[in-house]
Amino acid sequence: MALEKVNAVVIGAGAAGPIVAKELAVAGFRVVLLERGRWHSPWECRKDDLRNQRTNVLGNAFGPEDEGNPRVLVNQQGEARVLLPSEGGYNNNAACVGGGTLSYGAMAWRFHPDDFRTRSRYGMVADSTLDDWPITYDDLEPYYEKAEWEIGVSGDDSGNPFKGERRKPLPMPPVKPDSIEHQLLEKAARKLGLHPFHIPMLRNSVPYGGRPACMRCRWCVGFACEVDAKCGTQNTVLRTALATGNLELRTRAMTKEILLDPGGRARGVAYFDENDRLQEQPADVVVVCGGATESARLLLNSRSKAHPRGLGNNSDWVGRNLQGHLYTGAFGLMEQRTYDDLGPGASIAICDYVHGNPGLAGGAMLANEFIRLPVQFMNTRPPGVPRWGLAAKEFMKRNYTRAIAVQGPTQEIPVWDARCELDPEVKDRWGIPVLRMSGGRHAHTVEIGEYITYKAEAWLQAAGAIQTWRRGGGRGLSGGQHQAGTARMGHDPKTSAVDANGRVHESENVYVADASVHVTNGAFNPVLTIMAIAYRAGEHIARELKGKGI
């Protein structure tokens, strides 16, 4: 049974969807926001190391909770394997109100201006789909600022000479950098001629937005903040949108497809509600914000005579160019204790190696790491230390409080065959075809990542590390928490899925407003860019609706 028509239905309440919903609701439009997960409260997530979302094989604290939504992963040897959400390799993104912003580490980076023009800077990289964005840093700058001030960012990047121009400073000072680790790394960076500064964070360092400051606990990444000091969409823009009375949030709502008329125009969406009943929600506009993998899946599952290969996929660009980040870096053991048990741990960064690395088409930001809980620390041991047994315990006892990690997200070179498509046989518990993920990283991405490991190691050695070891990366598919690229934006419908505003080329009233639209994924955590794009898209959609007299 069809429900009452609304102006817009937004799919996904993660980093992007609530921002789009808020922009439309504040502008006076009636909006329905569909989220496949539920609204978690911080106190549901007890402070238990084994619940950490980043230790994926131990379970995902914030969804998908339902093991009835498997995926199929095809490895580098062409072997296909069905994976459940609780298994490693699933490439999960959180399924809950707030999405990953409920439990992320909250680094709040603006992309570098050259991240939007990598092909112009480096030329075409063979066997890649490297290209420039159809928008620039300057186009996004006002929306970066809006995200920083409206959602809330702390930090101080005034010491970063490589950043793009900004009109306003960050609204909050950094969390007090009083750790020995920070002091050692700052002194070492300056000794090497580098430019250290305080990491920007979507985290209250002082009371802000009616919420208190960070209480500095060790359980941060993978956990909800029990004092609500971590700034996500669920405790900022979503509350604003709901307060207008123009937004209805429906949780445990699994979207099946975008409903299309014979001409390919969207007339609404079909979704399964919390009681698994199939519902139809008519709307003037549909905005897809499900994350790069699930957004691609939804578009591919939305077929009609005008879109026989999936919505927006007549040129075969939907689901292609899947990127995440190759995280590489190094670890060091110090003579003295460096662990002070004050979260979040990460505090200092350098951007000296984001661009301009000899012979390489890109680079990475480098920063010290968030507090590594014991179960994670055992995955960072040096070569020769066993994973189990007495020797492993002795290594942990001796070194857990003396270790420093430095790493960064290498900007990946996009490739055509790193992709999401629909599996021809496997379906989820609602009968919807599941994702089939295949392909891998470009060889040059691995080369860039290897270069970054040496720079990280040199930084640690300058800080006084008595033992160091590097961590590189392989060619495997990258599509987890930083997933992007599967519905890239561009001017030409033959080489992109959406236009510069996120509108699907082949449908006048369907937009994509998450990291799916990224042409490249930057050398940084992408969430602030996702938020900026969502603000920009929301503003544009509101203007379009008003222009049509809706």
Name the features.
single chain; 550 residues; alpha/beta; FAD/NAD(P)-binding domain; 2 domains; seven-stranded mixed β-sheet; seven-stranded antiparallel β-sheet; 18 strands; 21% helix; globular
How would you summarize what this structure contains?
By secondary structure, the chain is α/β, with parallel strands linked by helices.
Provide an overview of this structure.
- Helix content is about 20%, strand content about 20%.
- By secondary structure, it is of the alpha/beta class.
- It folds into two domains: about 5-155 and about 200-325 and about 415-440 and about 480-545, FAD/NAD(P)-binding domain (3-Layer(bba) Sandwich), CATH 3.50.50.60; about 180-195 and about 325-410 and about 440-475.
- The strands form three sheets. Strands 1, 2, 7, 8, 9, 10 and 18 form a seven-stranded mixed β-sheet that branches. A seven-stranded antiparallel β-sheet has the order 5-6-12-13-14-11-17.
- A hairpin with a 5-residue loop joins strand 8 (about 255-260) and strand 9 (about 265-270).
- Helix 1 packs parallel to helix 5 (about 235-245).
CATH homologous superfamily title of the largest domain: FAD/NAD(P)-binding domain
Uncertain runs are 53-59
* Beta-strand percent range: 15-25%
CATH architectural type of the largest domain: 3-Layer(bba) Sandwich
The major beta sheet can be summarized as:
7 strands, mixed
Q: Mind telling me the C-alpha Rg?
A: 22 Å
Task: Tell me the series of helices and strands, N- to C-terminal.
Answer: EHEEEHHEHEHEEEEHEEEHHEEEHEEH
Structural class: alpha/beta
Question: Average pLDDT, to the nearest integer?
Answer: 94
Number of helices: 10
The domain count comes to 2
CATH class of the largest domain: Alpha Beta
CATH topology of the largest domain, what is it called?
Answer: FAD/NAD(P)-binding domain
